[in-house]
Amino acid sequence: MSKSIAIPGDYICKEEEYIPHRHVYVDELGNVRSAVIGKVVLDNLNRRVSVKPFKDIKIPKTGDVVVGWVTSMRDDIAFIKIVGYDFTKLFKHNFTAVLHISQVTDSKGDNMYNYVRIGDIVKVKVLNDYLPLLVTIKEPKLGVILAYCSRCGSPLYFDGNKLICAICGNTEQRKISLDYIAVRGKKGGV
Ligand SMILES: [Zn+2]
Fold first, then answer.
1. Residue 178 has pLDDT above 90, yes or no
2. Percentage of the chain exceeding pLDDT 90
3. Quick one: 137 exposed, middle or buried, by C-beta within 10 A (0-12, 13-18, 19+)?
4. Closest among 158, 174, 163 to 118, alpha carbons compared
5. Cα distances (angstroms) measured from residue 71 to each of 42, 119, 134, 161, 185
6. 151 C-alpha vs ligand 1 centroid, how far in Å?
7. Over the chain, what is the mean pLDDT?
8. 75 and 128 within one domain
9. Is the pLDDT of residue 56 over 80?
């Protein structure tokens, strides 16, 4: 156990110690972490751990479209830090969202790395109304709105076909949103 007040990302316990319940998530190493700012609540009867959010934290609702970026991932899951409805309407607090491969593609055995990468800016739709948020990118307007080159870190532009790095020429693949920002030939694009 770490401490009684947690902020998003704080380590609380191991997954084997308590079953993750409300407003917590399990990271790729099996650590239970807080998804909100709040008080850690251990339910010793049911072996469950929750974090009770401090008041006045408005959580996005089911169906809301929000933006954020990919903070960590593995083959079947990506963790996203949600920061606002768009970059002009930021939330007071950030929220952790989980994107499962089944909310990216219908093809079985596919790999998340074909669709998003760490650092990508994404537009996602919320599927629940508690934390961690569960999100989807299975609509044309959803997905990556700005990706960065895996080789050199520069923003990738979309040429109508694929993503290309203007600096090193690397080409990459993503699940691109119709609202992708850096589009060659488009006003405001590259
Ligand atoms: Zn590059």
1. yes
2. 74
3. buried
4. 174
5. 27, 6, 15, 26, 30
6. 5
7. 91
8. yes
9. no
Is the predicted pLDDT of residue 106 greater than 90, yes or no? yes
CA of 6 to the centre of ligand 1 (A): 38
Q: What is the pLDDT of residues 128-172, one digit of tens each?
A: 988 789 999 999 999 999 999 999 999 999 998 899 999 999 999
Domain coverage including residue 42: 5-53
Instruction: Tell me how far the alpha carbon of residue 138 lies from the centroid of ligand 1, in angstroms.
Output: 27
Domain count along the chain: 2
Same domain, 35 and 89: no
Task: With beta carbons less than 8 A apart as the criterion, state whether 69 and 135 touch.
Answer: no
CATH of the domain at 31: 2.40.50.100
CA of 164 to the centre of ligand 1 (A): 8
